Amino acid sequence: MTVTKQLHPALDEHTAAHVAELFRAFSDTSRVRLLSALSRQETNVGTLAEMIEISESAVSHHLRGLRQMGLVIARRRGKEVFYRIVDKHILTLFEQGVRHVRQE
Questions:
Q1: CB-CB contact of 62 with 31 (8 Å)
Q2: How far apart, in whole angstroms, are the C-alpha atoms of residue 73 and residue 78?
Q3: pTM for this prediction
């Protein structure tokens, strides 16, 4: 029996914890819906609340968590704050998850 060569060594504890934290962001339907809305365009709390039909307070709470996890960033324009997904890696993970669930 031949042993398959590992392409990547086992993850160290620190890296594994960060990957687990990343995927934890996808464990809440409201956060997933926010990411879905943000995958289309940068937008503000009020618009996001209307799009996914939850309160602005709930949107702000989830966005704070997503910011802390490093998945979204904020940009201030006057009194308004606009949010967007931080980079294409997060967008790709999200899109792959949707495709997997839809079996595309």
A1: yes
A2: 16
A3: 0.83
**Alpha helix (H) residue ranges in 4-75:** 13-24, 29-40, 45-52, 56-68
Please, what are the domains in the chain?
17-102 (1.10.10.10)
* Interatomic CA distance for residues 8 and 78, integer angstroms: 46
pLDDT, residue 5, reads 60
Phi, psi of 98 (to 5 degrees): -65, -45
CA–CA separation, 79 vs 1, rounded Å? 65
Q: What whole-number distance in Å separates Cα of residue 54 and Cα of residue 82?
A: 17
The pLDDT of residue 6 is: 63
**Distance between start and end Cα atoms, the chain:** 35
